[in-house]
Every structure is written in structure tokens, then in C-alpha cells.
């Protein structure tokens, strides 16, 4: 058994040396999946998931490998969750939550109040009966998923395409205050979820619809209507192309004091042109501090609601397209990931690497920020790698007596109360020297108050 041992020792030494090189070489630091690369930038990279495709092994393995946020493409819409009035069917959508937990992924909830995909009973309603049915739907659904959803699309597509005013719908006819009513109802139901307004054709700053939504958000912020984020669906095609002022739009909304998220991205086209646009969208999000993350509206071109426009990052066979490479490279700040098989212990490596490098001492450090309310809290933890970089990490915290963790994202938790250790999930264990990654957890009671302890795993 000597030979394998020697091999292991040599391998370890080689990896150690190569690991030090990794820390110094930008190209080798680059993360090799979308989720990992986004996590290194404090963002998520998500996809719409169609639950009935999970049995497709190609689809399922790309989902597990690449994404750290999911949105149900149809299964959390009003007709799916409340097919008969006040009779809720959560079975299918619950499977997505289970899957997201297994993946350590966030969930975007989509969508609570919308003129489209209403069940028949709701389509036939109006006035105060419809308004209270809307409130009941929001309350019941958000209560069922309380603590499990990162961001909810509370209201979807409420603006008219042409004039920047409200879209006519049965909900709009209940009174112009239906949107703020929906947001207030949502805040009461799950105070920890981010509450988003989500729409399409709001990407171009000079379009009337963009201005209409902007003015509503500005008014909501001025009057204290609870809104935390604006979702930009960003379905780009020749009729609604990616605009040169997209970054300006994202930044202007963020400057109102809301987060911005790209929620349903797809870009019709192919080859280099499509790849360039995808890369530009990612760079725009990264340039806006409050741009939390990007969700693409499906995995393979053949999974798309607009399959003929081949608008996604993987081809019908599950192979990454040039658009995928452009997105990954943009997330990595222009660098290309190392191949999964490197570093090879036999590859040449300088014998005495330069001692220069990031300054954070120790294996890693962790800092927290807490959003607390009576009876509950959300803690976001930033993990910063020390001068050697990390291939895995653990963060230990101690919860006060009576408090417990109800939900964790981008990490897995060893326990729900007392001393809890959070470990990296598959896509965010690798953190280059001096770089950061984030995870979070939600709980009942009070947040841990002491400093967290970070160690390499
Ligand atoms: O991708 C969804 C498709 O499978 C449905 O048939 C369609 C029905 O309305 O909804 C699609 O998703 C929409 C999303 O919920 C809201 N923004 C526009 C999306 C594409 O139509």
C-alpha cells in the first residue's frame, strides 16, 4: 500500500503548490459553473424549472450542476395553486422546494397576482369579491411557503405595453390601489421574503412602460408601500431588443432603494451575436450593486416557451452554447475557468511560489448581517477566503435558546438549534484567496449574536 500512499502524498503536495498558483492566476481562479461564478460575486444564477422535466436526466443534471436559484415556470401560478376557490394544491410546487433545498438553491416565487393564468373561478370575478380573493390567495400561498422563498413576484405584468399606464384587467378594475394592497398583504404574510414587482418591456429606459413602472415604485417608496425589488423579465428578441441603456435602467431603479433582479432572461438568436448580448446583460447586472441575480427562462433551447428562437444557454442536447461561455466568462470577470481535470500533479509548477497575495489571514473569516423582526430573523453570512483560498468551508454559529433555523440557502446546516455548523454546497465551496461567497439562513426567535467562526473544510 506504499505506492498509493506515496501517490496521495505527491498529489497533495502538487495540489498544494498548484493551489498557491491558483490563487495567483486569475484564469485558474475562475469558477466553472454559473451558480459558483455568480456566488463569488455575491449573486445567484437561476433558471425557470418545469417540474415535469425533472425526470429527464440531462435536464436534471444541468440543473444540479449550474444553478443556485429556481423559479417554477408554471407551477406556482394562481391557476396551479388555487384551482378551486380556497382549495389549494401545493403538491407539485412543493416538489420544487424540496429540490431547491437539496441543491442549496434559493427559490423565486412566481407569481401571486396577475391578469393571466387565473383559474376560471377568478376570471369570472370582479369588485370586492375579487379583491378579497386576491388577498386570500396571497395570504394562503405565502403562509404555506413562509421562510422558503427568497423573493416573490407579488404582482406581475400590471402595466400597459403602449402608454405607460395600467393594463386593463379584472384586478385593475377593482381599483387602482390593487397593487399596493397586494404588496401590503404580502408583507404581512411573510415579512422575510423580498417583495418584487415583475414585468417585461421595462428594460429600455426611454420606453413609456419603463417610466410608468418607475413612477409607481418611486411613489410606493415615498408613501411607505412595502416593495423590495423590481424584476426585469428581459425577454429579448427583434421586437424588444436588448437596449444600450439597460444598465441605466437597472441603476435608476436601484437608486429608488429597491433591489433589481433579472427574472426571465432569454435572448433570441445564435452564435456570437447572441453570446455577446448575454455577456452584456451579465456585465450590466454585475455593474449594479443592487442587482441580486439573474434567472434564465429555461435550460435548453428545446425547453423554452419560445423554442424556435433558440434563446437559451444550452442546445437541445444539453451542450453549452457560445452564450453559456459568454455568461460564465462575464460572471468570472472576463476570465475563463480552468478545465475540471486541472491542476494535474504532473503539470510543471514553480518550486517556490511568490508569497504575495491577498492579505486576509487564516483559512477564512465570516461576517453577518441580520434583518430581524419580532419573532424571526434572516441572517446573511459573507465568507471571505484567507490567503490560501478555499476548496470548502464551514461556519459555526450558536443560536440563542428557543431559536431555530427554518430555512437555509447556499449552504447546508448541521442542526436547527443550538450550535449549528453551515457547510458549503457543491457550487460555492471553492473560493479564491481574498474572494467572498454568501449564504443565508432564516429562523424563528432571535439571530445568533456572537461572531461566527469560519474554518476550511
Ligand atoms: O414559460 C411560461 C409558459 O410555459 C406558459 O405557457 C406561459 C403562459 O402564460 O407563461 C410562460 O411564462 C411567462 C411568465 O410566467 C411571465 N412572463 C412571461 C413568460 C413567458 O410568457
Structure, described:
The chain is α/β, with parallel strands linked by helices and 457 residues long. It is built from 13 helices and 17 strands. The strands form 3 sheets. It has an 8-stranded parallel beta barrel, surrounded by 6 helices. The relative contact order is 0.13. It binds ligand 9MR. Residues 73-74, 116-117, 200, 233, 264, 305 line the site of ligand 9MR.
Q: Report the helical percentage.
A: 25-40%
Q: Can you tell me the overall shape?
A: globular
Q: Hetero groups bound?
A: ligand 9MR
How many beta strands in the DSSP annotation?
17
Structural class: alpha/beta
Q: In which order are the strands of the major sheet placed?
A: 1-2-3-4-5-6-8-9
Number of helices: 13
Uncertain stretches: 1-28, 339-359
Radius of gyration: 23 Å
What's the story with the biggest beta sheet?
8 strands, parallel, barrel
Quote the distance from N terminus to C terminus. Answer: 26 Å
**H/E series:** HHHEHEHHEHHEHEHEEHEHEHEEEEEEEE
Task: Give the DSSP E fraction (strand runs of 2 or more residues).
Answer: 15-25%
How confident overall, as mean pLDDT? 88
What is the topological layout?
Layout: H1 2-24, H2 26-29, H3 34-40, E1 44-49, H4 57-66, E2 69-72, H5 78-81, H6 91-103, E3 106-114, H7 120-123, H8 127-144, E4 151-156, H9 178-189, E5 194-199, H10 208-223, E6 229-232, E7 235-236, H11 246-254, E8 259-267, H12 271-287, E9 291-296, H13 322-331, E10 364-373, E11 376-385, E12 393-398, E13 404-409, E14 412-413, E15 419-423, E16 436-444, E17 453-456
Parallel strand pairs: 1-2, 1-9, 2-3, 3-4, 4-5, 5-6, 6-8, 7-8, 8-9
Antiparallel strand pairs: 10-11, 11-16, 12-15, 12-17, 13-16, 14-15
Helix pairs in contact: 8-9, 12-13
Bound molecules: ligand 9MR.
Ligand 9MR is lined by residues 73-74, 116-117, 200, 233, 264, 305.
Amino acid at each position: 500500500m506504499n505506492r498509493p500512499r506515496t501517490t496521495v502524498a505527491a498529489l497533495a503536495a502538487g495540489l498544494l503548490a498548484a493551489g498557491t498558483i491558483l490563487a495567483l492566476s486569475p484564469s485558474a481562479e475562475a469558477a466553472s459553473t454559473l451558480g459558483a461564478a455568480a456566488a463569488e460575486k455575491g449573486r445567484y444564477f437561476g433558471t425557470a424549472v418545469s417540474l415535469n422535466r425533472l425526470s429527464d436526466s440531462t435536464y436534471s443534471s444541468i440543473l444540479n450542476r449550474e444553478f443556485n436559484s429556481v423559479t417554477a415556470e408554471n407551477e406556482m401560478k394562481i391557476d396551479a395553486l388555487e384551482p378551486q376557490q380556497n382549495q389549494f394544491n401545493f403538491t407539485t410546487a412543493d416538489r420544487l422546494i424540496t429540490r431547491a433545498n437539496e441543491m442549496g438553491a434559493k427559490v423565486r416565487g412566481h407569481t401571486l397576482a396577475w391578469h393571466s393564468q387565473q383559474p376560471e373561478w377568478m376570471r369570472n370575478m370582479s369588485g370586492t369579491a375579487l379583491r378579497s380573493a386576491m388577498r386570500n390567495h396571497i395570504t394562503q400561498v405565502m403562509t404555506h411557503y413562509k421562510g422558503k422563498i427568497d423573493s416573490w413576484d407579488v404582482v406581475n405584468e400590471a402595466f400597459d405595453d403602449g402608454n405607460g399606464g395600467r393594463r386593463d384587467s379584472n384586478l385593475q378594475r377593482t381599483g387602482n390601489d390593487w397593487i399596493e394592497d397586494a404588496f401590503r398583504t404580502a408583507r404581512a404574510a411573510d415579512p422575510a421574503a423580498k417583495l418584487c414587482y415583475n414585468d417585461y418591456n421595462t428594460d429600455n429606459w426611454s420606453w413609456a412602460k419603463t417610466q410608468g413602472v418607475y413612477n409607481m415604485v418611486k411613489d410606493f417608496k415615498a408613501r411607505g408601500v412595502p416593495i423590495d425589488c423590481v424584476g426585469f423579465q428581459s425577454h429579448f428578441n427583434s421586437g424588444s431588443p436588448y437596449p444600450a441603456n439597460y444598465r441605466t435602467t437597472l441603476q435608476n431603479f436601484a437608486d429608488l432603494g429597491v433591489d433589481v433582479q433579472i427574472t426571465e432572461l432569454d435572448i433570441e438568436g445564435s452564435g456570437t451575436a447572441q453570446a455577446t448580448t448575454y455577456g452584456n446583460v451579465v456585465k450590466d447586472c454585475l455593474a449594479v450593486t443592487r442587482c441580486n441575480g439573474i434567472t434564465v427562462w429555461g435550460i435548453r433551447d428545446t425547453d423554452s416557451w419560445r423554442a424556435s428562437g433558440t434563446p437559451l444557454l444550452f442546445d437541445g442536447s444539453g451542450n453549452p452554447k457560445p452564450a453559456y461561455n459568454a455568461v460564465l466568462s462575464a460572471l468570472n470577470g472576463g476570465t475563463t475557468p480552468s478545465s475540471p481535470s486541472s491542476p494535474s500533479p504532473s503539470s510543471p509548477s514553480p518550486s517556490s511560489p511568490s508569497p504575495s497575495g491577498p492579505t486576509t489571514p487564516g483559512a477564512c473569516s465570516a461576517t453577518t448581517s441580520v434583518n430581524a423582526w419580532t419573532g424571526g430573523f434572516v441572517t446573511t453570512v459573507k465568507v471571505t477566503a484567507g490567503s490560501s483560498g478555499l476548496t470548502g468551508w464551514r461556519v459555526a454559529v450558536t443560536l440563542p435558546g428557543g431559536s431555530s433555523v427554518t430555512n437555509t440557502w447556499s449552504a447546508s446546516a448541521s442542526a436547527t438549534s443550538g450550535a449549528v455548523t453551515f457547510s458549503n454546497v457543491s457550487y460555492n465551496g471553492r473560493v479564491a484567496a481574498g474572494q467572498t461567497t454568501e449564504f443565508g439562513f432564516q429562523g424563528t426567535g432571535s439571530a445568533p449574536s456572537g461572531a461566527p467562526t469560519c474554518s476550511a473544510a
